[in-house]
Write a structure and sequence with these properties.
Belongs to the peptidase M1 family. One of its GO terms (molecular function) is epoxide hydrolase activity. It comes from Cylindrodendrum hubeiense. Its main location: cytoplasm. By secondary structure, the protein is an alpha+beta fold. It folds into 3 domains: about 180 residues, Immunoglobulin-like (Sandwich); about 90 residues, 2-Layer Sandwich (Zincin-like), CATH 3.30.2010.30; about 160 residues, Orthogonal Bundle (Neutral Protease, domain 2), CATH 1.10.390. It is about 30% helix and about 25% strand. It is built from 11 helices and 22 strands. It has an 8-stranded mixed β-sheet, with no helix packed on it. Strands 16-17-18-20-19 form a 5-stranded mixed β-sheet. Strands 9-10-15-12 form a 4-stranded antiparallel β-sheet, with no helix packed on it. A hairpin with a 2-residue loop joins strand 4 and strand 5. Helix 6 packs across helix 11. The chain starts with 18 loop residues before the first strand and ends with a helix.
Length: about 475
């Protein structure tokens, strides 16, 4: 049995270093009139040290009741403290020891201040007839929907039940039919259930409800959108989908999730896309009519491996999610659209990197480092494309150092080794033993790469990044 969890996470106040969530059972009831969600979350957790209380992350939630192992218990929702919200302290009736399981059930309700939910009136929705709601939990907004250990290193299986008068999608495999019937004039509340058997972080929890229709567009893929937008969405997203999947599988390995579905949200969705497992969310702005936003789909699909399957242990190491994802994305673009497309995206990325560094205080600012410091800060405030491009360039540096033919076998090795786990940057110090083992290079080159790796950690490496991109013919 393992001991304490030694991952550091300045953005969670939960005691995840003492007890770890193994399964999360959520039941939600969506109230469009009150723009709120009422529900219960039941957490099955495993102690990894002796404990007498459980601390969970919450933000702007109303807590109604708490039970532990089926019995009422004392609990306290402590005052809000920025930037991490209001810790929920749950008292245990006795001390639990290493290896014991604990079952915690909490009744809660969201408030209008919830940062993880967005609501649209019928007038704001695409069909102008029915309201629409959806979640966006990355990086630390799951705690504003349900109490949880809102740390990316904590990965659990899920069962999600949702009551709503409108069709629902959520981050799991649906027990109901994947094609929604047309809405009737008189709406009735229906129960939707989703199961996620691959452990995922709470920031990847998702739910959306509104007037959506679905259509199968691939062997394992369904497309969901407003009824009037299906033709345009299909024509935009279907043509390249199979090629995107094939390219990613060529680089890594077979797509590891049972389904890959695409959900097109209203244009006001503030992101181009979000990699929620099983049901990726996309903004309607991606539907341009010319299939030229293939990079957005390539990026979100790449997250199926990087981020969703292998996850950064904390947001300080966000580059492990996004650097790898950009690398896979541009590999996909090279396979699907040719080397010119990869070069174009790398050049645009370089320009965004230069602009981002200038915007965040220049090359000497700690906010422009590849490994960030979030102590006392909101991740939303300093997350930027800087780590995307620095992470991508570091991986390209490794590829160029040893040669593509030697480097490419490492990619599936990495995602196999850390599958369903969370990693931090110290675990990426694999480069030295990797280059001396899996890849045939001498020890002096391995040491050179390792020293360069440490340089990438720091903010003052812009010239190094430029040289890597130039050497690779990308600038």
């Amino acid at each position: 049995m393992c001991g304490r969890n030694h991952v550091a996470d300045s953005n969670s106040v939960s005691n995840f270093h003492e007890i770890i969530t193994r399964h999360t059972d959520i039941d939600l009831s969506i109230d469009f009139e009150r723009t709120s969600v009422k529900g219960t979350t039941a957490i099955t957790a495993e102690c990894i040290s002796e404990i007498s209380e459980i601390i969970l992350d919450t933000s702007y939630l109303k807590i109604d009741s708490v039970t532990v192992d089926g019995k009422p218990t004392q609990w306290e929702l402590q005052p809000r403290s920025e930037p991490n919200g209001s810790p929920l302290h749950v008292r245990l009736a006795r001390r639990y020891t290493n290896g014991e399981s604990v079952y915690i059930k909490i009744e809660f309700e969201t408030t209008t201040q919830s940062t993880g939910l967005q609501w649209f009136s019928a007038e704001q929705a695409d069909d102008k007839k029915h309201p629409f709601m959806f979640s966006q939990c990355e990086p630390v907004h799951a705690r504003s929907i349900f109490p949880c250990q809102d740390a990316p290193s904590i990965k659990s299986t899920f069962r999600i039940g949702v009551l709503s008068p409108l069709p629902v999608v959520a981050s799991g495999i649906p027990e109901h039919d994947l094609i929604f019937p047309p809405l009737e004039s008189s709406l009735s509340v229906k129960h939707y259930i989703f199961n996620q058997d691959i452990p995922t972080s709470n920031y990847l929890f998702s739910v959306a409800s509104g007037n959506m229709v679905g259509e199968q567009i691939g062997p394992k893929s369904y497309l969901y959108c407003s009824p009037g937008n299906m033709d345009a969405c299909r024509e935009e997203l279907k043509p390249d989908l199979r090629a995107i999947i094939n390219a990613a599988e060529k680089l890594v390995f077979e797509y590891p999730w049972p389904l890959y579905n695409l959900v097109v949200l209203p244009k006001s969705f503030h992101l181009g896309g979000m990699e929620n497992p099983i049901f990726n969310f996309y903004s309607a702005t991606v539907i341009s009519g010319d299939c030229e936003n293939v990079n957005v789909v390539a990026h979100e699909f790449a997250h199926s491996f990087s981020g969703n399957l292998v996850t950064n242990a904390s947001w300080e190491h966000f580059w492990l999610n996004e650097g790898w994802t950009v690398y896979i994305e541009r590999f996909i673009l090279r396979e699907v659209r040719g080397e010119a497309e990869e070069t174009l995206r790398a050049m645009v990325g370089w320009q965004e990197l230069e602009y981002g560094i200038e915007s965040y205080g220049g090359d000497d600012s700690l906010d422009t480092a590849m490994v960030l410091d979030f102590r006392g800060k909101r991740p939303d405030d300093i997350m930027s494309t800087i780590v995307y491009e620095k992470g991508y360039t570091f991986l390209r540096y490794l590829e160029e150092t040893v040669g593509r033919s030697s480097w490419l076998p490492f990619v599936p090795y990495y995602f196999t080794k850390f599958s369903k786990k969370a990693v931090d940057s110290t675990q990426m110090k694999f480069v030295r033993p990797l280059f001396e083992g899996l890849i045939s290079v001498d020890g002096s080159l391995a040491l050179q790469v390792y020293e360069k790796y440490k340089t990438f950690y720091h903010p003052t490496c812009l010239r190094l990044i430029r040289s890597v991109l130039k050497n690779g013919g990308l600038l």
